[in-house]
Amino acid sequence: MRFIIVDGLDGSGKTTQARLIEKKYHSRGESVILREHPSSDNPYGRKAKKALLGRGKINKIKASVYYAMDVIRSVKKYNGTADNIIMVRYLMGVAYLPLPLARILYQFFCLILPTSEYMFFLDLEPEESIQRMSQRDSEEMFENMDDLIKVRKKALKLAQGWHIINTSGTIEDAKDNINTILDEMDKKN
After folding, report:
1. 8 within a domain of the structure (yes/no)
2. pTM of structure
């Protein structure tokens, strides 16, 4: 089983690239489960999304806790049930917390949740992220320049050992970079 993680800044193309990976493996006749977080099919995901649309410290705490519970639920429910599991927004949610706590929680979650060599962090400059998100209908609490700069800096520190993919170019460029890595890893495994 491939356990593929697609994480990154808001607006970096996580969902788009995850769906392209899903399509790649489906075309090979392999089964794929794609999970995006926060997910809308369970109370944890819905509560996390509601908190993300709110403001203030309480909503930040709620968003983090419910987000973690949503991810843990997905792992428990779906891990090992398909040839490929793709998790979108998985471990880097901790980068929204202060760095000392983010580091501790990242290490903790890496101990209790599955990780793999198929971990992709989609990166782009915060300015590009803001531009892409301006086309959305709603704004989450962390979707502002100051938070994006801080979160990106923390996430890049945490993502050591991940495949860092620059998504500031075209969707096809990012797809090609990811597919090159996937193909190399599939040959190796």
Report:
1. yes
2. 0.90
